[in-house]
């Protein structure tokens, strides 16, 4: 996993080819992460690989989901890609189907607005996500990830914050609009926004949305959201993709040892991650291993003496 995230900094087709070869690995966690990284890189000759992953029903839904998101992230607007996405609109896996719906809506919007726009180079980030403000005087925060739905909403008042929170939690709203609200809240970059997001981890209508909220909480790094993430990790009836994302984000929050609240949560987070190190679902046990490895690295602790690299 560590090698994978170093590889992405070499944003070229040779590295992408190595990553494509590594898709033969048996770990679902590693494969889904490779698909994610391929989407975040600006190498477009991986389109067929991503389409094949979407089409391959023997792949775990988490891998197919990341492949569909990667297709969107790379900004393809051609008809072959559209046909691939349309073909999966009634797939048996609901999270994958919803990913495809979002990717297709994104494709059609992009085609409409500017089909000739070139893919912008971007600054890749390490897995456990830090944030960066572009300009001091701008309220909106920018995160160096390509998001599944771009949100240009700038929240400036408490009322607007509440309004977008209400959209996010409203199951009657379109998933696309809930995703836009989700990223608007993240970009507000406040503790209140993070707490609103965490409170939506109880929502029942979409595992896809819950997994994205967990991912974002790892980016925002507000330790007070750890409890809700721990609840997701503990819930054995939860989708693997949601438990996984909760574990990884806990690895991000657990590395905050430079604030009082971070130090309060760190031992609790470490204990929870250790609890699930031997979970029967390899996606979860491997995620906990990666999360603990992150805390170990960031905080110079010895948490995994016998680490077996993924
Ligand atoms: Fe995802
Ligand atoms: Fe993931």
TrEMBL record:
<dbReference type="InterPro" id="IPR016024">
    <property type="entry name" value="ARM-type_fold"/>
</dbReference>
<protein>
    <submittedName>
        <fullName>Deoxyhypusine hydroxylase-like</fullName>
    </submittedName>
</protein>
<dbReference type="InterPro" id="IPR004155">
    <property type="entry name" value="PBS_lyase_HEAT"/>
</dbReference>
<dbReference type="GO" id="GO:0016491">
    <property type="term" value="F:oxidoreductase activity"/>
</dbReference>
<dbReference type="InterPro" id="IPR011989">
    <property type="entry name" value="ARM-like"/>
</dbReference>
<dbReference type="Pfam" id="PF13646">
    <property type="entry name" value="HEAT_2"/>
</dbReference>
